[in-house]
């Protein structure tokens, strides 16, 4: 046994270092650009992204409901569009078929909610971890991008399944 450990432990340690180096280099590739802040009409941005997702949701029998009130924020429209796209895609994938996605604006923020099966308490603390995914085909990048964009905008956010069974991404801008 000692012979096996002494022969293979250095190889395992070397492989671990190689993987660590690879992940650092890979993460550097997916770095986000600095936000270019401008005035963004939040209701318009949400409506546009919902329109893009409408046909995919329809095919899956998912209702897309909007409740939008006018609000403007300072943000980078392209980066914020990606956040909304990720939120809708996650909700759609969570539901699978035949559910509801609700997109609403609240003051200087928004909520994307779905009535899918929810986030397992086992995974709740890992959902914004880079490369973590509870989905078999997930890459673990979408929520990491979402987190990074929102933090660069100084926004507060949460993603959880609430007591009523709905999973909500809540975002509030300053």
Which helices and strands, and how do they pair?
Blueprint (H helix, E strand, L loop, with lengths): L1 H28 L8 E4 H18 L3 E5 L4 E4 L1 H19 L4 E7 L2 E6 L27 H11 L3 E6 L5 E6 L2
Parallel strand pairs: 2-4
Antiparallel strand pairs: 1-3, 4-5, 5-7, 6-7
Please sum up the structure shown:
With 174 residues, the protein is α+β, with helices and mostly antiparallel strands. It is 44% helix and 22% strand. The chain has helices spanning 2-29, 42-59, 77-95, 142-152; strands at 38-41, 63-67, 72-75, 100-106, 109-114, 156-161, 167-172.
| Helix content class | 40-55%
User: How would you write the strand order of the largest sheet?
Assistant: 2-4-5-7-6
Largest sheet: 5 strands, mixed
Shape assignment: globular
Low-confidence parts, pLDDT < 50 over ≥5 residues? none
Question: What structural class do the secondary elements suggest?
Answer: alpha+beta
Q: Helix and strand string, N-terminal first? A: HEHEEHEEHEE
> DSSP strand (E) fraction?
15-25%
How far apart are the termini?
Answer: 60 Å
C-alpha-based Rg, rounded: 19 Å
Number of helices: 4
Average pLDDT reading:
87
Could you tell me the number of beta strands?
Answer: 7
């Amino acid at each position: 046994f000692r012979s096996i450990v002494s022969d293979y432990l250095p190889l395992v340690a070397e492989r671990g270092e190689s993987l660590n180096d690879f992940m650092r280099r890979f993460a550097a590739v997916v770095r986000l650009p600095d936000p270019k802040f401008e005035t963004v009409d939040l209701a318009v941005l949400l409506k546009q992204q919902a329109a893009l997702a409408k046909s995919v949701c329809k095919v899956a029998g998912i209702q897309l409901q909007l409740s939008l009130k006018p609000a403007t924020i300072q943000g980078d429209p392209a980066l914020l569009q990606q956040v909304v796209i990720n939120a809708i895609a996650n909700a759609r994938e969570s539901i699978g078929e035949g559910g509801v996605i609700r997109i609403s604006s609240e003051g200087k923020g928004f909520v994307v909610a779905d009535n899918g099966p929810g986030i397992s308490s086992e995974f709740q603390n890992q959902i914004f971890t880079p490369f973590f995914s509870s989905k078999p085909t997930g890459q673990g990048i979408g929520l990491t991008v979402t987190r990074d964009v929102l933090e660069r905008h100084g926004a507060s956010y949460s993603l959880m399944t609430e007591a009523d069974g709905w999973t909500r991404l809540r975002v509030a801008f300053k």
